[in-house]
């Protein structure tokens, strides 16, 4: 099956499925009625702030935690009560959890050597070397895992999981310990491995960039609840709530009041014909949809006066920071592919404006 391209759930082809899973720690509801499925050869990213329940969700799928309510299915079977080691689900931990006194190949082959694989030594070696090659560590099989870099250890942890040929691999912040360069390379390799082995990956990350870059679908969590499931394009283009827009870290959010199809905020009153229902009135404008003009320039749409504070060069874009009179920091991104960036005078005021049709309006009163 090809990875799916929409956020819709297809129960017949799912590799795993969670039905109404709730997990409590004492009074704390770590997972609240979570329902989710994943298809074959799909890459799913969990995105959410710290403490939102991402790791708990992974641990419930893996079988390290038992839910108080709900069911977990894998390959069409109810595995809610099956112990973790009988599930056949791979798990790569945040801290890699390698055996420090063993070599790369001894770590990679550990599960086959010590499990019930029934393979002979030559077959175990062949399969382990193949995985070492797939994760890009050929030639390093004899080294101790204390003689390789953090990124290489991460690959060993992945190869060790993949030798068991699981259909589902759970990755808990697998790239968190790596520098930006290595993270980029590992992302590409994870994609290539997914293509080559047809494994479904579920990847937990606190980084919105990583979630959007990696996932065929992104699952957004907040306080134990799944608040949106969709392709990166759907989540980015149509965040389901102000909280999702906030986690994506790509939108300026303005408070105000939505009434009778008009949003009134610190930038004036703007027509808002298509609002998304929400418990708060919030106006969201993407960082890369804002423009800055001289305060004396005529502006027809919404505009807010703000002082230029600083800019940051991000490689493919420049992020400019402004501060409005009420202290609200407004971010404006300029993609360098669109031409040279504007330069701004420190501590000077500008008018920030945008096309209101490109804003996303959330409100209690929706027509
Ligand atoms: N063993 C535990 N006992 C009690 N509370 C726990 C336990 N594990 C997690 N929690 C709580 O459950 C909530 C969800 O935690 P979880 O680790 O799933 O969050 P997370 O989204 O993975 O966070 P992070 O990004 O910081 O790793 C948090 O409030 C956390 O403090």
TrEMBL record:
Q: Which organism is it from?
A: Paracoccus subflavus
Which InterPro entries would you find in this protein's record? AAA+_ATPase, ABC_SmlMolc_Importer, ABC_transporter-like_ATP-bd, ABC_transporter-like_CS, P-loop_NTPase
Nuclease in keyword set: no
Which residue numbers delimit the ABC transporter domain?
A: 16-248
Q: What is this protein called?
A: ABC transporter ATP-binding protein
Q: For this chain's UniProt record, which GO biological process terms are given?
A: quaternary ammonium group transport
**GO function terms (MF aspect):** ATP binding; ATP hydrolysis activity
User: What are the alphabetically sorted keywords of the record?
Assistant: ATP-binding, Nucleotide-binding, Transport
> Which PROSITE patterns does the entry link to?
ABC_TRANSPORTER_1 (PS00211), ABC_TRANSPORTER_2 (PS50893)
Q: Pfam families annotated for this entry?
A: ABC_tran
